[in-house]
Amino acid sequence: MKNIIFTLIIMLISLDLSAQEMTLYEGDIPNNKPAIENKEKIVLENGNFRISDVSKPTLTRFNSAKPNGMSVIICPGGGYGRLAFDHEGVEVAKAFNAQGITAFVLKYRLPNEKTQDNRTLAPLQDAQQAIRLVRKNAEKWGLNPQKVGIMGFSAGGHLAATATTHFTMKADPSVKDTFSVRPDFAILCYPVISFVEEITHKGSRNNLIGEKPTMETTNLYSNELQVTKETPPCFLVHSADDGAVPVENSLRFYQACIKNKIPVEMHLYPKGGHGYGMNNRTTEDKWFERLLNWLKTL
Description:
Blueprint: H1 2-14, E1 19-23, E2 41-45, E3 48-52, E4 58-62, E5 71-75, E6 82-83, H2 86-97, E7 102-107, H3 122-136, H4 138-141, E8 148-153, H5 155-165, E9 185-189, H6 202-209, H7 215-220, E10 234-239, H8 248-259, E11 264-269, H9 287-295
Parallel strand pairs: 5-7, 5-8, 8-9, 9-10, 10-11
Antiparallel strand pairs: 1-4, 2-3, 3-6, 4-7
């Protein structure tokens, strides 16, 4: 029943029937404890839908009327405690569609010790599986398997950055196929990047790796420390007055990209705060337009 309600919500938000939700895994969901009861909740908050207690991940495909072969997997934010599914997911997907880009909104599992054997790995497993699934079906869906990007907002930005820097890490050891999980590009919007104490978003960090993580785990998921010369091109957006996720997160990631000679573009706004999705109301400048210009260079 919940899946039916969720699909209806997607249709209402997108105002058409093009949204196609699919289960992320064909068989058993890796890293889930046996006999998991789906307690997923969908609430309306400040005019936006929020999803919590996600234990059964899905990928929703939004098709463009005139697809150009490029695709983007979108990871909504929410502090690894819920998902801002519409304004950091569906609305962005529809904007991509208008530009010929096929978009996918990932409803990834939220870390939960009650439902997962390893809560820290579950979101990355889902992000890697989403990339795998898109590449596996690229020909059928009319996509270029070498133009598959990942995008994330806030904690979803942390997940996207983790997928961007940890693609050599096999999050799900049971996978047998050989499809690459390295995204071809990454788009990070006011992202949580680091779990270093002085600049992290503590809610996201605590939800993913716990309140007292080891230094090894903290460094592993501080993605500015994981950038290498193999990291794909990146685009960042942040605001200087972000009171939830300090702008230093994006600055450090940008510096790491420069150090490793990774093509990177960053747009910083003096105001905007946090969580504004597509529309930073403090400026007439549209970061999404800047993003579209950048995508043309890839």
